[in-house]
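User: Fold this; tokens only.

Assistant: Input:
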Amino acid sequence: MIQTFSSTIRRKEMDAVLTCMVDEKIGPGELNARFIQTLKEFTGCDGAVAFRSPSIALSYALKALDLPAGTPVMISALAPFWQYCAVESLGYKPLVLDVSETTGLVNAQIVQEGISAGGRLLLLHETNGILPDLEEIIALGIPVIEDISHSIGAVLPEKAEESGETKETSSKKNNRRAGSFGLYTILGLEEFDTVTGGGGAVLMAPGRREWVVLKNYTDAAPRTDILPDINSALAWIQLKEFNRNEQARKTLFAVYQRALMSGKNKTFVREADEGSTIWSFPVVLNGSFKDVKQYASRKDIEIRSAYSDSVVAHLEESEALNLKVAKALNLRTVLFPLYPRLGSESASKIARVLGTLP
């Protein structure tokens, strides 16, 4: 059976973790610092701190923003459920937004509606590695915390019509990376995130001003909040191997996308197609999830619901009345196996199934 997810851990990652264990330096230390330095170079952020969980990272971001208790925080209905739980447990009010049917993300119009309903902060999860029109969202004037757990490495090209350049010229210049738009940025390092440390998250400040404020809080963080070296070692090597892994994922994605076009199902629109990060391969089904799952299983391919751990999947029916698009996508969207270690034979089998789905 071809599993939906598989670790991208190779010998280099194993060696880094084993070295930590042999040296008996598994708590927060040198490798945590080395990982952060590499991440700063990769993203261009001004400062960053690696924590033991995304929830802890979010708590420090909210401290730095000094939001009053009870402030409504906007989150996507298809964002991971930990966001809803963390916002609520930290004393704020989750304001769940519906999504665009074509991308599975919030857009500027949806966020504007959230602002009108009282939203004062947007926690923006860039699900499936797809970037929304971030410039339009930022232009609304609302504070944004980006979550680039799926989208690290993605870039948003400057619009050619605005710059007066051709599309080809513009795509090579002035591109902004995911994570550079919000006041603060969270990069999850959990099991199925694009870069994994086996757990944890990094909180980044793209700008100097925000980093100075954040640093006042993180410098006083207890050691038990900080990511241990054993996780940092894995995340560090994963980040160093990111470009190679991403190229493998993009190659598979192109094959899958061509195969899917011959059938009646579809995947999401990616406005910044070349700049998107490939996290997995989501398919929005035209038919029954049960039928497709059984069909794929007969071909020895495991598929999963794309949003089984999303906010909308955990809400009571009465709480999700206004989340019609998200509810539909939750029922109809599945993930097919796509990861760097997938062999060509398995990839060809998956492509054939994608082109013949019921």
